[in-house]
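Final report, Chapter 2: Outcomes

The project's central promise was a pipeline that accepts a single protein chain and returns its three-dimensional structure in a standardized token representation, suitable for archiving and comparison. That pipeline is now operational. To close this chapter, we reproduce one record exactly as it appears in the project archive, with the input sequence first and the structure output second.
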Amino acid sequence: MSWVETANEQGNPFPLQNLPYAVFRSAGTDETFRIGVGIGDKILDLTALGQSEVARASRLNIPESLYASTLNDFMAEGEAIWSSTRKALFGVLRQGSLYEIEISDCLIDQSNAEYALPAMIMDYTDFYASIDHATNIGKLFRPDNPLMPNYEWVPIAYHGRSSSIVVSGEPIVRPKGQIRSSIDAPPHVSASEKLDYEMEVGLFVGAGNQRNVPISIDEAEQHLFGICLLNDWSARDIQAWEYQPLGPFLGKNFATTISPWIVTMQALAPFRISMKHKGERTILPYLSSDREEANCVIDMHLDVSVQSAKMKVEGVPPKRLGQSNFKYSYWTPAQMVAHHTLNGCNLRPGDLFGSGTMSGPGPDQTGALIEVTKGGELPVQLSNTESRRFLEDGDTVFLSAWCEKDGYRTIGFGECNGTIISVAEPV
């Protein structure tokens, strides 16, 4: 239990057992962005906490790296510091803490905050870790051979564009690009007409590795700091023309939205489950481990909904278009790290991995519109008067996620939302 009463309410995503990190400031101000911890409907301002008289007097065990404007330095400090800091913050916020009266002015309402990216993201890699999504997409384009032969051996990924990663709430401008609508016509430049979402999980790298020194599968989990939600927006018509032979480019690099909150791997520990595929397949030795944590995925429920501009005006709630779970990942987080560094690639604190669209095995467990609508052939109903093949201007996409287990408090990940706006025309 926490002395922050809202943290004890059932359904609040940020109980004492969560303590996610974000970078924030008071909305509408020019304050410096700073690091905070989510508790109930509040944010604990760690800079203000560190400057408080009671924290100095009690020699509170909070590292100076948390008095910064990004989480990179704290991410770099590693598991031991992350663990001791979590323990200290738990002590500060638990019911009966001597800090309750002394630091109440270090809390601000989440509703009064605005957020920045939680870390300086130098590199972004997007995996393709859902075999169900890979199969669904393959059936659309290669019905006789939907799954490529390397899929069950290699954690497939591509390097994305970190400069266009934005935090939840930032509008998404409809991209332009080369499109070839017919094999009988030349390509032309226009705004994408097949804009899509991708429901993904984001994994933040903590401590990095030296170049040319791979991270072993047994050590890989120690290099992961935490998890967020991620929407890797996709322009399917641009992507279809350009992706051969080298893969995604302008159809992907215009925007990726992440949630502002990072839920730490330590908070997620109770929700680990052994991968269901273990023992049912053969993998290469560098991706295989006897350590339980390396063979675990996270039982993390995922949900995607869409609300049109008209639905907002009429008070119609968002329409759920898919539910899935991170446990359906074909590769564990540890395997993603081990494969990424096999060739000596050096990861850095704050690097971001995307899981790839995290679809599940059921027909309602799709993570992208291209799956829901079978490539745009079968429109889906949003309301009594609207349907969609792909996203239209004014549509808002909502991602949400939570972890639940008997005997444990349910924890959440905050919002990951984005609204499509029309492409800006030159003046």
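Archive annotation: The mean pLDDT is 95.
This record, like all others produced under the grant, will remain available to the consortium after the project formally closes.
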